[in-house]
Every structure is written in structure tokens, then in C-alpha cells.
Amino acid sequence: MKKLLAFGVCLVMLTTQTFANVDPSVDNVNEKVLRSFQETFPVVEEVKWKEYDTYYTVSFKQHEIQSEVRYDKEGNFLSSLRYYKEDMLPLSVLHQLKKKYAKKTVFGVTELIVGSDVAYFIKLEDEKIWMTVKADQNGNMSIYEKFKKS
User: Fold this and answer.
1) pLDDT tens digits, residue range 37-53?
2) What DSSP line would sit under the chain, residue for residue?
């Protein structure tokens, strides 16, 4: 009986936590878009919706990764941004990065997906400079921006 009661309390707490993260603006999101989002991302936190003339943007956290996804009014995926640490990079990209910029420290990664194209904007630093390296899925890299530290 105690185990059943403990299970029930845990279930109520989990359910309450899940629904506590629902964004009140979700009422303004059309059903196609909401269904597409919920099918792709069933377990997320801190969901926030914004509606624009031709698309919706939803920001959320999934597995401690901050993300933002755009959908058109029909619920079709347009693009996404994700922000994370270097250990989430594909191995081929991480290998090339460590090889080419061995003396730099990775501050963070912004992943941009538009259609089927993926780009990684990797913020690097050392004692003298900040730089952003743009990489593609194949590990091809180029300096996107570079700044001297003051």
C-alpha cells in the first residue's frame, strides 16, 4: 500500500511539473503547428511560443540544450537553432576543430539548420582573441569572425 501511495505521489508530481511548463501562449498556436512540434519534441521544458505573419517560433530546452525552431503556418519545419557545448558536435567536426585550432578553447556552439543544410558556428578563444569558426557537416571550416580582446 505504501509503495502504491508513493508511486501515486511521484506520478502527480511529474504530471504537475510537465504541465507547469506549458506556455500560456500555446492557445494562439494553430493545431497543425502544435501537433508537428509535439510529435517531434514530446519531452521539453521552458516552452515559449511567438507568432509572426508567416511563421511561428518556439523556444525550449531539451536535455539541457536551449533550442529554437521555426514552423510555417502549415506546421512544416523551416529552421532551427541549438546552443550547446563542444561535446555535442559531430565527431568529424570536433576532430577537424581540435586538429586545426588545437591551442584555442571552445566557448560554445550554435547549430543552424535550414532545410537539410547544417552549419556550426563555434566560438573559440585564447588569451588574445575571440573568433567564430563556421563548419559544415563534413568538417569544412572557415573563420567567420575574429576580434582582439582588449
Assistant:
1) 999 999 999 999 999 99
2) -HHHHHHHHHHHHHHHHHHHT--GGGGGS-HHHHHHHHHH-SS-EEEEEEE-SSEEEEEEEETTEEEEEEEETTS-EEEEEEEE-GGGS-HHHHHHHHHHTTTSEEEEEEEEEETTEEEEEEEEE-SSEEEEEEEETT--EEEEEEEE--
